[in-house]
Design a protein that fits this description.
Elements: H1 3-16, E1 22-26, E2 32-35, H2 37-42, H3 55-58, H4 62-65, H5 81-92, E3 96-107, E4 110-125, E5 128-137, H6 139-150, H7 163-175, E6 184-191, H8 194-201, H9 203-219, E7 226-229, E8 234-240, H10 244-261, E9 272-279, H11 290-306, E10 311-312
Parallel strand pairs: 9-10
Antiparallel strand pairs: 1-2, 1-5, 3-4, 4-5, 6-8, 6-9, 7-8
């Protein structure tokens, strides 16, 4: 590596020390050429040295540490999600954004599982290519999420709120609004042709499509909104301070992101339809909260009968 290349990577390392994420740079052979200090903190590594090793060697992959072999030469390496990602980055130039993966490491002499949110991209410098891997440790978040699934707060597949929890929040939102005059909209969303999708491509493909739609819900809603799984292929949104027309605009943004998100897993476009119910303060005086859900279900059924990719208000 030339002095100029080392200088550029050193500049990256200096900048990266200012942010709470781990960053490492690998060459075309998977050897870690630079890493910021956060990497060593995450893995409780006392010796901050690279020693020309591959990422599994440097980061103390459990399967490498438990054998006399190096990273890439252990049977478990064939299924290593980090290795597969880095190979795609280096060989195909693929970029990854906010991918969540887990891996087993040896930390303080014992096996530990960690989860990460990873961003990765190839950087070409002349005739050489490097993989820049940026990741955040989300282990505590994933452990909490698993506990919330056990408590019935979250749906295990999508990571959204469970049906029971989101309906509880809707009732609470409406019951305790007092004299508030802002609108609330309930949007019930259903994947079009979901049964045919499962029959043609299998349930794993259907699950993947549903998870990607759930991800779009998270990306395009606010912290004050609630997104949950309502049924097998149906998701639900509770949008605070949002009338039905504005909720339709939110769904349009979700549609655009969703269409792009499923291109690589489906042979044809996938759409969804929705039933939207705007709820004013006057609407809730009766206290019959279930009727809003029933109305949204009826509107969604009508939308899907009239044609795919349709909203009914």
């Amino acid at each position: 590596m030339s002095d100029i290349e080392r200088s550029r990577i050193a500049d990256l390392e200096t900048i990266s020390e200012l942010i709470p994420t781990g960053i490492f740079v690998v060459d075309e052979n998977g050897v870690v050429v630079e890493a910021n200090g956060r990497i060593f903190d995450i893995f409780n590594m006392r010796e901050k040295t690279l020693d020309g090793g591959k990422y599994g060697d440097v980061l103390n992959c459990y399967y490498v540490a438990d054998s006399d072999k190096t990273c890439g030469n252990v049977n478990a390496c064939a299924l290593c999600p980090l290795r597969l990602m880095i190979d795609k980055v280096l060989e195909n130039g693929e970029a990854f954004v906010d991918e969540t993966l887990s891996h087993e490491f040896e930390i303080n002499g014992r096996k530990s599982i960690k989860w990460f949110t990873v961003n990765a991209k190839r950087a070409d410098k002349g005739e050489k290519s490097y993989g820049v891997i940026i990741f955040s440790d989300v282990t505590d978040k994933m452990i909490l999420q698993r506990e919330l699934v056990k408590l019935g707060v979250l749906d295990e597949l999508t990571g959204l709120f469970s049906r029971r929890y989101v309906l509880q929040q809707l009732e609470k939102e409406l019951r305790f609004r007092n004299s508030a005059t802002y609108p609330v909209t309930v949007a019930l969303v259903g994947l079009d042709g979901f049964e045919q999708l499962n029959e043609a491509l299998g349930e794993a493909a259907g699950d993947e499509v549903l998870m990607r739609l759930a991800d779009m819900f998270r990306r395009h809603t606010r912290d004050t909104d609630y997104a949950g799984r309502f049924g097998e292929e149906r998701l639900m949104l509770i949008l605070e301070k949002c009338d039905a027309a504005s909720a339709g605009n939110v769904l349009d943004r979700i549609r655009d992101g969703f269409a792009a998100a499923v291109k690589d897993v489906l042979p044809q476009p996938q759409t969804f339809s929705a039933g939207l119910v705007g709820i004013s303060f006057e609407d809730i005086q009766t206290g019959e909260f279930s009727r809003f859900i029933e109305k949204a279900q009826g509107l969604l059924d009508k939308a899907q009968l009239s044609g795919d990719n349709t909203d009914e208000i």
